[in-house]
Design a protein that fits this description.
It is found in: Cytoplasm. The chain is mainly alpha-helical. The protein has helices at 8-23, 29-56; strands at residues 58-60, 66-68. The protein has a two-stranded antiparallel sheet.
Length: 71
């Protein structure tokens, strides 16, 4: 069964939880590696979501016309 796509806010919360758990220092080295990989994977998902949003952003210029956001 396909997992429901998570919101950016939910992903940020998960990332904060991983960081908090690692900062407590009460995890084994193996647990720290697992948390690190979970954090990296979560961060990748965040970046993908942000990239998708940036591609959808329209900018209103001085003449009142819209065009796509450019970096």
């Amino acid at each position: 069964m396909a997992e429901k796509e998570q919101t950016l806010e939910k992903l940020f919360t998960q990332l904060e939880d991983v960081i908090r758990e690692m900062e407590q220092g009460e995890v084994s080295l193996e647990e720290a590696f697992a948390l690190y990989h979970k954090g990296v994977d979560t961060l990748k998902m965040c970046n993908e979501k942000i990239d998708k949003v940036e591609k959808k952003i329209l900018v209103l210029d001085n003449e009142g016309e819209t065009h796509e956001f450019e970096q």
